[in-house]
Amino acid sequence: MNLAVLRPAAVCFALFVPAAHAQVPSALTGQVSSAEEGSMEGVVVTAKRDGSTISVSVVSDTKGRFAFPAARLEPGHYTLKARAAGYELEGAKSADVAPGADASADIRMRKARNLASQLTNGEWMSSMPGTDEQKRFLLNCNSCHTIERIMKSSYDANGFLQIFQRMAGYYPGSTPLKPQRLAGKAMRDVERGGNGRKTAEWLATVNLSQQQTWSFPLKTEPRLTGRSTRVIITEYDLPNPLIQPHDVVLDREGQVWYSDFGQMFLGKMDPKTGKVTQYPIPVVKPGWSEGTLDLELDRDDNPWVGVMYQSAIAKFDRKSEKFQMWSTPKEWDTDGGQLGHIAITGTHTDNKVWIKNSDGGYIYRLDLASNKMENLGNFIDPRNGRRIGTYGIHSDAENNAYLLDFAAGNIVKVDAKTRQMTIYLTPTPNSRPRRGRVDREGRLWFAEYQGNAIGMFDPKAEKITEWKVPTPWSAPYDAVAGRNGEAWTGSMLTDRVSRLDIASGTYTEYMLPRPTNIRRVWLDDSKNPGILWVGSNHGASIVKVEPLD
């Protein structure tokens, strides 16, 4: 083989596989197999050194081989784990890595004795009987807990109705480890666009209220193969299991910042050491739910966060390490006031920050010169008189705003000067666009949560293009495109991230080592291929995904 004619990324992978040990040393190699399949491709193998907060994962190739590059594993004793739907490790597995040596550890898999415990949220959705319309209701549940929790319950229809009512009174950043009740008269939509009674009756037929086990077969997605196996995944454990890294972003120095969905902290992590620093955010509305959502970096690399039910936004000055807070004016504030999303990409043009209040869908603008907010009201779809159900709000270089209508399929552009809106419809009706980003060319990339797609709005052509994600029930939350001709998204349901080649329209997906509730996706495109960063929102960790080609 003539390596000179290969692309640089291809050379990197050619030197990475076990056959090339003499050229690039590996710290640990081995083979994955089972009695049923023999050599197994697409198995995620994870190594974690004793006492470390950092784990590294690779994926077995077509011959079942895996290899950890020497630069990724320090000397020490490692515990090994493996992920392959329908299989589990035959006993505990470990390996000792010594300086300058190539350790080996073959992995033997056996059929899983408890398949239900392995299913992703998406696999539960595919397995359970019911229409897509019925199942879509559950897309409102996995923000706080797994679908498995519902399927293993024994509630009857009346019990589910009580659960719906109780859940509507919880903060969206609640988890089983830390539930937070909403304060005052705040209440979330109980039925979420569906029929509560009908949904409850259907759920009582698919859970364990009428049977000891499920009457339907449990389905798993096929393991990923080919290019999807050429990846290194690094996971950094955060110091407290209550931390929910909702948004993860990198500054220009390569430091990792995250917003905590359930606590009043802004976090920073050094990716070289895994060291975490947490900066407490002032509580400005005592008694109301605590937690942050949207995290943005301004031109000076200062982080800004939406502080949710504290009805405020915050800017962190990196030099002084102090927060500046802006709260909703008292005359506008309500029990359900929720400033979760902000847009600052175009703030330098007019010194104004876009803010969304989820309670009522109001759109604010903060003038940084006067420190005053103006209320632009809630925008209405003229075709049906319905309020635009804005979730993500994003701005372009001219500080025009884009509102992503999570209640329908609208992309709404608001002119920064005239305040006039223009509505564009996604090709898939009611696709529920959620969050995204404006790229260097001024195009808006976004995730279609119900449309199962990445979408792109080109303002020059005034056209929206969609690319459907291949795995069912991926329900993409966020999307981002980089300078290398690729766009990425992640899923709260499938434990997969998806990489789109824009020119060809083809996807490469990567399986993560463990259940990972992904929200924001952040792409470091300073190299080719780019590196994706996500937070494990229910796993208290930060995940880095590095494709090898």
What does this structure look like?
- This protein has 549 residues and is mainly β.
- 9% of the residues lie in helices and 37% in strands.
- It contains 7 helices and 38 strands.
- The strands form 8 sheets. Strands 8-6-3-4-11-38-37-36 form an 8-stranded antiparallel β-sheet, with no helix packed on it. Strands 1, 2, 5, 7, 9 and 10 form a 6-stranded mixed β-sheet that branches.
- A hairpin with a 4-residue loop joins strand 3 (44-49) and strand 4.
- It is globular, with a radius of gyration of 24 Å.
- Mean pLDDT is 94; it is low at 1-22.
Q: Mind sketching the topology for me?
A:
Elements: H1 8-16, E1 26-34, E2 38-39, E3 44-49, E4 54-59, E5 65-69, E6 76-83, E7 87-89, E8 93-97, E9 103-104, E10 107-111, H2 121-127, H3 132-136, H4 147-151, H5 157-167, H6 196-206, E11 231-237, E12 245-250, E13 256-260, E14 265-269, E15 276-280, E16 295-297, E17 303-306, E18 312-317, E19 322-327, E20 341-343, H7 347-350, E21 352-357, E22 362-367, E23 372-375, E24 390-395, E25 401-405, E26 410-414, E27 421-425, E28 433-438, E29 444-448, E30 453-458, E31 463-468, E32 476-481, E33 486-491, E34 496-501, E35 506-511, E36 521-524, E37 531-536, E38 541-547
Parallel strand pairs: 1-9, 1-10
Antiparallel strand pairs: 1-2, 1-5, 3-4, 3-6, 4-11, 6-8, 7-10, 11-38, 12-13, 13-14, 14-15, 16-17, 17-18, 18-19, 20-21, 21-22, 22-23, 24-25, 25-26, 26-27, 28-29, 29-30, 30-31, 32-33, 33-34, 34-35, 36-37, 37-38
